[in-house]
Design goal:
The protein is mostly helical. The protein has a single domain, classed as Substrate Binding Domain Of Dnak, Chain:A, Domain 2 (Up-down Bundle). Helix 2 runs antiparallel to helix 3 and helix 2 packs antiparallel against helix 5. The N and C termini lie far apart (32 Å).
């Protein structure tokens, strides 16, 4: 709700659907939190050596999702070329992290939760990019 309230005054700047932007921001921050928590939980597992790639992808995805949420939240003078590049990077990070977490989900519940959050964020980012009709140069 807060995201929508904060973006409402900037709606005249939007080249995308307001609801798609709101959902994407919320999904990015949710995913960043899930990835951060998953990395921490992985560090506490007895087989941490087998989770190194998962931890790295968790931390990378969290950082990219956080940055994407921040950039999407700044709607005054938005450069949509930059924004769409960042959203595309977020999709890739979520795909990689979600795929890796899914490999460990049968042993670690936190990896399943993280994989699900990554999929939701990936989908929200893809829906957002589909609402941008053209990018001004």
């Amino acid at each position: 709700m807060v995201v929508r309230e904060m973006l409402q005054p900037h709606r005249h700047h939007f080249q995308a659907d307001l609801e798609a932007v709101v959902r994407c921001i919320e999904a990015c921050y949710e995913c960043a939190q899930a990835c951060t928590s998953c990395a921490d939980a992985c560090l506490g597992e007895p087989n941490v050596e087998n989770l190194r790639r998962c931890i790295t992808l968790n931390l990378n995805c969290a950082a990219i999702c956080e940055a994407t949420g921040q950039i999407l939240s700044r709607q005054t003078e938005t450069d949509w070329n930059l924004l769409l590049s960042q959203v595309s990077a977020c999709v890739i990070a979520c795909q990689l992290c979600g795929d890796e977490c899914q490999k460990h989900a049968h042993h670690h519940q936190h990896c399943q939760v993280c994989a699900d959050a990554c999929r939701r964020c990936e989908e929200a980012c893809q829906r957002l990019t589909a609402t941008v009709p053209t990018v001004a140069h």
